[in-house]
Design goal:
Layout: H1 5-19, H2 32-44, H3 51-79, H4 86-97, H5 100-111, H6 115-139, H7 143-147, H8 155-188, H9 197-206, H10 210-224, H11 227-230, H12 236-248, H13 259-267, H14 270-274, H15 278-315, H16 321-341, H17 344-355, H18 360-382, H19 394-427, H20 436-445, H21 449-494
Helix pairs in contact: 1-15, 2-10, 3-6, 3-8, 3-10, 3-12, 4-6, 5-6, 6-8, 9-10, 9-17, 15-18, 15-19, 15-20, 15-21, 16-18, 16-19, 17-18, 18-19, 19-21, 20-21
C-alpha cells in the first residue's frame, strides 16, 4: 500500500482524537488573565534586582553547556566509526532515549548537586546523539578521495585522512546546533537545583516576582539568540577552558562514603534483595505506575504532535517574504526564533502558572516549541526552491505552490520530531503531570531506585518504538516519492 501525506494526516487526526479521551485539559487556574497581565507587565518592566548573581548564573549556564556538549561530541566522535556494531549502537540508543533531566535525577544519587551532575546529565545523552549523527556524516563522506588511497591503507588511515576531513563542515555545523540545545538543557537543569538561570526563573515565578523572572528570561535570550555570531571555532578551546575553571569554583557537596555502592545496590529490584515475592512489586510498578504513566505520556505527546504539525503548517509562511512581505517575514522570523529557543520545559512551567494544573500547559508548550522548529526549517527550505516568474503571492502562493512542493519535507520533519516530543512529554511529569516522569521522580524521592529504573526502561522502550515507527514511515514516504518521480520520467519519455 502506498503511503502519502493524506494517509499520515488521517492517521494523525484519528490518533489525536483518540488521545483526547485520556488527557486532562481542565485548567484550574484561579484567574489566568490576571496572572497573564502581571507576567506581561513584568516583561515590559524587567528588574535586574541582583545583577551579580544573575551574571554568575548566566556564566554557569554557558559553562555547563560547553562542558556537556564537548564531552558528548568527543566521546560521540570516538564511537561514530563503530556505530554499526550492536554493542555500540544499543547503548547509544539507551543514552539518548532519556532526557537530560532524567539523567540528572539519577546522577544526583551518586554525584549529588554538583557540577559533575550537570555536565554528565548533558554529556551522556548527547554522546548517543553525536555518535549516531557523526556516524551518518562519516558514511556519507565523498568516496572519490578515499578511492585515491592505496589499497593497503588501513581503515584508521582512511578515516583520519579522508572521511573525517570531508565531514568536518557538517560536524562543525551540527555541533553548533547542539550547543544551542545544550544551552536550553543547561538552563532547564536549574529546575532541579543546579545554579543555572532556570533555578532563578523557578524561584522568582514561585514568589510571583515576574519582573525579576522577566530579567532572567531576557538574559537567557541574550545568550542563545546571537549564539551563532559570537561562537568562533578558534575560540572554542578557550571557552571550554573557561567553563571548566568556572565549574571548578562551584562547591562540590560530599555524598558520603559508599554513595556509589548504595546506588548500585538499590538498582537491584527489591524482591531480589530481600527475597520477597515478585508479583506485588511488579504489579505496583508496571500496573499502578508504568501503565497509567505510559498512557498519559503517549496521549499527551500525540496531541502535542498534532498541535506541532498544525502550528508548523500554518506558521512557516510567515517567514517567507513572498507570502508575508519583507517586514512581516522579519517579524515572523523573530517570533519563531524566540519560541524555538525557549526550552519547552521552561515554557510549560510558565504556562502552568497561568492556566493551572492540567496537561494543557504541557501540550501548548510542546506544540509551540516543536512547531516553531519545524516551521523554521521549512521556511529555510522554501528559500531553496526555484519559483516560476508568474507564481502568485500571499496565501495563494502558500496554498497552491509552496506547501504542495514541501509536503514531503514537511512530513519528514514532523516524523523526526515525533520521537523528540514523546521524550519531552515524559519529563513533563516533573511539573506534576502524571506522565512517566511523575512516577520516576516520586520513586527517586523515596529512594526506590529499582522502581525508577524499571520506569525509565519503559520510557526507553516507548521512545524506541516511536523512533522505529517514524523511520519506517519516512522510508515508505521516500520510496513512494522515488516511484512517483520515476513514473513521471517514464511518462515524459513515452511522450
Amino acid at each position: 500500500m502506498s503511503l502519502s501525506g493524506r494517509h499520515l494526516l488521517l492517521g494523525l487526526v484519528g490518533s489525536s482524537l483518540l488521545a483526547l479521551f485520556f488527557v486532562d485539559l481542565n485548567a484550574g487556574g484561579p484567574d489566568p488573565w490576571l496572572t497573564l497581565s502581571r507576567i506581561a507587565e513584568g516583561l515590559l518592566t524587567p528588574s535586574f534586582h541582583n545583577p551579580g548573581e544573575l551574571l554568575r548564573a548566566a556564566g554557569l549556564t554557558l559553562a555547563f553547556a560547553f562542558c556537556g556538549v564537548a564531552f558528548g561530541a568527543t566521546i560521540g566522535l570516538v564511537l561514530a566509526p563503530f556505530y554499526r556494531l550492536r554493542r555500540v549502537r544499543w547503548p547509544c540508543i539507551a543514552m539518548r532515549a532519556l532526557h537530560e533531566i532524567f539523567w540528572a535525577l539519577l546522577l544526583l544519587n551518586i554525584t549529588g548537586l554538583s557540577p559533575l551532575t550537570g555536565v554528565l546529565a548533558i554529556g551522556l545523552p548527547y554522546t548517543g546523539i553525536f555518535a549516531k549523527v557523526f556516524s551518518e556524516y562519516l558514511d556519507e563522506a565523498d568516496a572519490r578521495a578515499e578511492a585515491a588511497l592505496p589499497q593497503v591503507a588501513s581503515p584508521l588511515l582512511r578515516l583520519l585522512w579522508v572521511r573525517l576531513p570531508a565531514s568536518l563542515p557538517q560536524i562543525r555545523t551540527y555541533s553548533l546546533y547542539r550547543l544551542e540545545c545544550g544551552l536550553r538543557s543547561s538552563a532547564v537543569l536549574g529546575f532541579i537545583g543546579l545554579p543555572t538561570l532556570g533555578f532563578h526563573l523557578e524561584s522568582y515565578f514561585k514568589q510571583a516576582y515576574y519582573a525579576e523572572a522577566a530579567a532572567v528570561f531576557l538574559i537567557f535570550l541574550a545568550l542563545i539568540l546571537p549564539l551563532r555570531h559570537w561562537v568562533r571555532w578558534r575560540l572554542v578551546p578557550l571557552f571550554i577552558g573557561m567553563s571548566i575553571w568556572a565549574l571548578a569554583q562551584v562547591p562540590f557537596p560530599p555524598m558520603g562514603q559508599g554513595a556509589v555502592w548504595r546506588f548500585l545496590t538499590d538498582l537491584v529490584p527489591a524482591p531480589a534483595r530481600i527475597e520477597a515475592d515478585w508479583l506485588p512489586w511488579l504489579e505496583k510498578v508496571l500496573v499502578d505506575q508504568a501503565l497509567p504513566g505510559a498512557i498519559a505520556t503517549l496521549s499527551l505527546s500525540q496531541i502535542a504532535f498534532g498541535g506541532a504539525t498544525v502550528m508548523a503548517a500554518l506558521s512557516f509562511p510567515i517567514i517567507v517574504p513572498r507570502v508575508a512581505g519583507h517586514i512581516g517575514a522579519t517579524l515572523g522570523h523573530g517570533i519563531l526564533v524566540i519560541l524555538r529557543s525557549t526550552p519547552e520545559y521552561m515554557l510549560a512551567f510558565v504556562l502552568l502558572q497561568i492556566l493551572g494544573p492540567s496537561m494543557l500547559p504541557a501540550i501548548i508548550a510542546l506544540a509551540l516549541h516543536n512547531g516553531a522548529i519545524i516551521a523554521h526549517l521549512l521556511g529555510r527550505q522554501s528559500g531553496d526552491l526555484t519559483i516560476r516568474p508568474d507564481a502568485p503571492r500571499g496565501l495563494n502562493f502558500w496554498a497552491w505552490e509552496l506547501f504542495p512542493r514541501l509536503t514531503g519535507n514537511f512530513w519528514a520533519l514532523c516524523l523526526y520530531r515525533w520521537e523528540i516530543i514523546l521524550r519531552e512529554s515524559a519529563i513533563m511529569g516533573l511539573l506534576g503531570i502524571t506522565t512517566l516522569g511523575f512516577y520516576v521522580q516520586a520513586n527517586l524521592q523515596q529512594l526506590r531506585i529499582d522502581r525508577a529504573l524499571l520506569l525509565l526502561a519503559v520510557t526507553i522502550l516507548l521512545t524506541a518504538l516511536i523512533d522505529t515507527a517514524s523511520r519506517a514511515l519516512r522510508r515508505r514516504m521516500q520510496a513512494q516519492q522515488v516511484l512517483r518521480i520515476e513514473g513521471t520520467r517514464g511518462s515524459a519519455t513515452k511522450a
